[in-house]
Amino acid sequence: xxxxxxxxILIFAGVTLFYGIIVIHxxxxxxxVHRNHPHQDxxxxxxxxSLFTLHAIWPFLWIWSTLxxxxxxxxxxxxxxxxxxxxxxxxxxxxxIEPVAGAADSEVVSPESIAIIxxxxxxxxxxIGRIEQAILAASETGTTDGDQG
Length: 149
Fold this sequence. Notes:
- The chain is mainly α.
- Among the domains are: 2-67, no CATH class; 109-141.
- Helices cover 68% and strands 0% of the residues.
- The protein has six helices and no strands.
- The chain has helices at residues 2-25, 27-34, 40-52, 58-67, 78-93, 111-141.
- α2 runs antiparallel to α3 and α3 (40-52) packs antiparallel against α4.
- The longest helix is centred in the last third of the chain and has 31 residues, at 111-141.
């Protein structure tokens, strides 16, 4: 009787191990499906090939499936797009100055806007001064954030 129980446990362990390996090798494909990867089928087939190549390419499949995201693509062109978008964003933030009634074709700035700009410039100048003092104090003592520890 004990022999049959041991045989049943051995068969159960073998079947579980067999299907467990298949499920583990399907993880990159599931990631690709979740991310709407354009190479889902290739990743799925490569997962099956990885079973027969002693799992040599499986880590590369994991990396391949996680590189792509639908919202940002492959992510390599992100820096170039941001660099191109910065001038456009700066232009979009510029508010055109409306001429004062009765003025000629020249653009006239109101005294309120000048006061606001002057106040912001003073605040920035104050912040820069405090940063410079902190840097000077740190350099005089010879400590930086990296030296502590």
